[in-house]
Every structure is written in structure tokens, then in C-alpha cells.
Amino acid sequence: MHSTPEISSQTPHQTYFDGGGEMGALTRDYDWSKTVLGPPEQWSQSLLTTIGIMLKSRFPMFLWWGTELIQFYNDAYRPSLGNEGKHPKALGQQGEECWPEIWPVIKPLIDQVLSGGESTWSEDQLIPIYRNNRLEDVYWTFSYSKVNDAPGKPGGVLVICSETTEKVNTMRKIENTISELAESESRLRFMLADAPVAIALFTGRALIIEAANKKVLEVWGKGEEVIGKPLHIAVPELKDQPFFQILDDVFTTGQSFHGNEVKAMLELNHKLEEVYSNFVYQPLKNVNGETTGIVLVANVITEQVIARKKVEQAEEMLRLSIEAANVGTWHMDVDTRKFSPSSRMKELYGFDPEEEVSYDDITNQIPEEYRNKVRLAVEQAIASGESYSIEHPVTGYHDQTSRWVRALGKLYPDTAGHPAHFSGLTLDITEQKQDEMRKNDFIGMVSHELKTPLTSLNGYLQLLIARMKKSEDTFTTGSLEKAHAQVKKMSTMINGFLNISRLESGKIHLDMETFDLDQLIREIIEETKPTLQHHSLTLSPCHPVSIHADREKIGSVISNLLSNAIKYSPKGKKIEVNCQIKGEIAEVSVKDEGMGIKPLALEKLFERFYRVETKHTQNISGFGIGLYLCSEILLHHGGKIWVKSEIGVGSTFYFSLPLAP
């Protein structure tokens, strides 16, 4: 079934408001006709474009527009307004009405930009604002830029900003800590010795090492003999690195310097090694304000940085591998169901790489007869945490090309700060699937052609056996009966291949009827008993169980499980069959005392053509299609099959089916 592209009902201006999270939704729903800007369809192209860019940006952005300075902002800016403050009424509000507490500070900046002045830039500037039910000291790094409404005509001011309150407060705490340490050299020396961070005191512009704790000596790879020496002599490998110039600038300017994840090459164990640290150079000043020394406080983070770089490298290698393999990837937030497919994933489903595509858009390209099966498999994988693996066809959205894909996924539970997500890969298996279909068509054709002469041969054998029973030629009678048994085996095998061909092509027919499952089990057991020469077969007490299914195919499932139990159990062992009702489900089990199955083989047991290969099974006939057919038949009935097994003890195969309505 092909889906037809929906005709968009959006007006042209609405496309600029697509997405944008919470603020996108608020902007779309706002009644702009009650503002001086009027309804969006009257807005200029410049305003619409600016709002579209702003809403989709992940960087905090704010916009004032028009003579009344009407306000817009995006999701990234939203946290800066606090929980109980200006949001959401700030949207569409006039600037002066929204920011009375800071209007005298920011209005001159706005006027400067609108009057043709250069864009402004302010770093770590204190601008107190009212939020969280109180006036807070808030620090910002921001830029004000003019946005023209028409050539040469200013329309508004775009603010790109980042709140730096936490950074400023942290730096102040560090500076205060260092200042407190510097107040008393004796106290500083005492704290230097066993501090978990690297601390050193340099005096004079020559940077004489007056004090150094154990940690900094360990980082430098030096002993206490360096104390009293100039830094350039004590640690000569720093000579061609930027640190001496930075230290000299701190000494001459009296301004502290903060380094973040800075790499230094230090001689450790007679070789240069990379050392990463976050550090501060804090000048020490006398009563006249003159710099007399510098304190170094450093937190060594080499292991963390190297570990992060290894992760980044592994992620890059994974990305390159995925691109080289030409597979699609996808990620879905379990809570919000937000779906993020890769460009290749979109292409596999017939979408353009740059298109916005949702989970429903993807599943709608799956033919109707497979769609619910895929959606159910996804929900089951999310609910159970089990791996997701499924093959299905798709029809391209734009190109209408038919493809086959295989999807592999897994649920990743939530971790600290990260919500649970369901993600995986999608592979194009069209060529492989076409080969399989050609093979199945061939198997089906050959099996069908063999079935006709085999049916005739079976009829002749039955006639001959009936005639020979009237004679006393026991040898010929026995030979004919053995031949008849082999013909039945071949018929069963050919029927299996035919059923596989029908299953693979989706043409298997189910002749549904309501019948007693317990009675069917008894009939199959009676048919099986003539082959039980060396085993005992028992049926536990079974109450009447009514189901609605294809009686012949469910019978073949029971017969196959009994046949396997007989084949894989040593002579003299027991086989037990049980049938019971559990809620709205009928459950049947076949238990043997055979050789058991290894755990690794259990995962593949119901795959097509899979056989457990051991020294015990090499002389047992079979093609590995029986359990696969059982699994597919039960799946088509809304049931399931599973097994529990222990090596040397035996196996119990279970299957379940819904009860009749």
C-alpha cells in the first residue's frame, strides 16, 4: 500500500515557527494581532527569518522588535528567566515594561545599536534581574546586534547571550581562597604540604620557587631540591611553552590568569609526557599594590582528559564505521517519543536527508501488513529491555521504491542526567532478500513438482501393502511398510519446504476454526505411538481447552515437538506432555530427558535452517526447519514458543495460544 503525501495546511509565515520546543509553541499560539506588530502574516520577511533562526537555535537568543521593542526569545534563553518570574508573559511584552529594574542600563545599549552604532560586546557584566520571586545578581556575556527591517532601516535588536553567574561566582571563590591563603605565608606553607591540588609559590619576576607542595613536585617530576631555584632552571622543559610569558604578564599587569584543560609537556621518567590541568596564576601584592609573587593552584586532570579523548576518538571511529557501512541510525526518547533518524535512515525510507521526519512518518512507509508487527516489536523491546531485531519491506516516500530493511535496536536505560532512549541501526537488505525470495520460489517450485509424483507413489505403496497383507510374504510386506514410512518422511519434509516458501512470501493460508486443543493433542499422541519403540509417552490430566486456530497447522506444531523429543532422547527415557490454561492463554509443554541444549544455541534455535551441531546430533536427520516453522505458525496465530533446557538433564519446549473468544 502506498501512502500519499499530505497537503500542508500551513500558511507561509507558519513555516518559520516550526519546531522550537516550548517557545516555538508559545510563539505560534500567541495572539499577535493585539500587539503593535499585528498578525504574523503582515510581518516583514526579515522579522520572520530572524524569529525562525532564533527558535531553532540551541544558543540563548533574545529579540526586541519595532519602536515598542516587542520581545521574542527561544528555549535556550528560557532558563535565564527563572521559574517564577517574567516567563511566559515576557513573550510579546514591551521591553520597558518587562525590564524596569535594568532599563536604565540596557536602554542606552539598544539605542546605540539602533542609531547605527557598532554591535556591543560585554563579558561577565553584572545586570541584576527579577526572577524566582526576588531580585538576583546575574552576570552575562552578551552581544547586541542590529537587525534591519528593510535596506538601511533598523527593525530590532538581536541579543545573543550566555549567563555566566556560576562561572563568575566560582572564579571569585577561587580568588577569595587564594587571597585568604596569601594573607599569611605561614598558613600557606602549612596548607601547601599535603593539599590534594598542586600549589606553588613563586617570588619576584625571576619566579624563584619559594614553596611547592608534594603534589606539584609530583606533577613536575622533581624533588625538593628545586625549591629556591628559578622556575626556568628547575623545570627547563617549560622553556618553549607559553607558561613563562603568561607568568610574566601576570606579574607585570597584576591580573590573575585562569587556564582550562591546558596541556603542558613535562619530563617524567626521563621522557616528555602530556599533563593536563585546570589552574590559576594569582598575583600576590604588597600594601602598595605592587606584585611581589605569584601563587599557582592547579588541579591535574590528565586521566580525565585522555579518557574523554579516547571516548571522542571511539565515537568518531564508530561514526566513520557507520558511514562506511552505509547503514542508517536512529534515536528515540522513550518518554517524549521524539525520533531522530540519520540522513541515511531517511534515504532508506524515501525521504530527503534534510527533511524533518517523525516516527509515524517512518512507520507509515511500512506496508500495512507489516506495520503493526513492527510497532508491536518496538513497544515490546522498550517494555522488556530485550534486543530488537526485525526484517520488513518499506516503500519510499518520494521515490516509491520498494526496499527490504533489517532493523536492530536496544533500549538504553536512563543514566544520571540522560533520559532513557531506544536506538539502533537499519540496514538495506534488498539484494539479500531478493536472493532469498528467488531461492524460496525455487524451493517451492521444486517441492511442488516433487509432491505430485510422491503422492502417486504413496498411493501405490498403500495398495501394495494392502494386497501383500493377504499373502504370507512377510519380507515383502515389511519392506513395503518401511518404504511407505520413508515416503511419509519425505512428504513431511516437502510440506515443510512448501510452508517455508509460503511463509517467506507472505502467502501462507490459515484455515481458522474453533476446536478443542486437548482433543487434538490426544489425536497426535495416538498417531505418534506406533513410532514409540523405545520411549514412554504420557499426557498429564488436561481439562477441555477451546482455541480458534488452523487445526492442521497447530497439529503440525505438536507433532514436530513430539518428533524432536523422540529423536533427541536416548532409548528408555520418558516424554511428558502437559496442557493447561493460564488466564486467557492456553499453554502446552513437551518435556524430554534428552541431551539438553547449550545456552548459546538456545538463542538461535528457532532460526531458519539452524541445527545444533554436536557429536550426538551428527547422525540425526533434519534440515533445521521444523522449529522455525513452529515459531512462524504460532506467530501468525498471535502465540509464542520458547524452551528451557539443561545439558545432560533434558529440555522442555513450551508454546502458548490465545483461548477462543
From TrEMBL:
Enzyme class: transferase
Protein's UniProt keywords contain Phosphoprotein: yes
GO biological process terms held by the UniProt record: cellular response to phosphate starvation
EC id: 2.7.13.3
GO molecular function, one term: phosphorelay sensor kinase activity
Domain named PAC: residues: 388-441
InterPro entries: BphY/WalK/GraS-like (IPR050351), HATPase_C_sf (IPR036890), HATPase_dom (IPR003594), His_kinase_dom (IPR005467), HisK_dim/P_dom (IPR003661), HisK_dim/P_sf (IPR036097), PAS (IPR000014), PAS-assoc_C (IPR000700)
PAS domain boundaries: 314-385
Histidine kinase domain: residues covered: 445-661
Keywords: Kinase, Membrane, Phosphoprotein, Transferase, Two-component regulatory system
Domain of life, source organism: Bacteria
Catalytic activity: ATP + protein L-histidine = ADP + protein N-phospho-L-histidine
Gene Ontology cellular component list: plasma membrane
PANTHER family in the record: PHOSPHATE REGULON SENSOR PROTEIN PHOR
Name of protein: histidine kinase
Record organism: Pedobacter caeni
Upper taxonomic lineage: Bacteria, Pseudomonadati, Bacteroidota, Sphingobacteriia, Sphingobacteriales
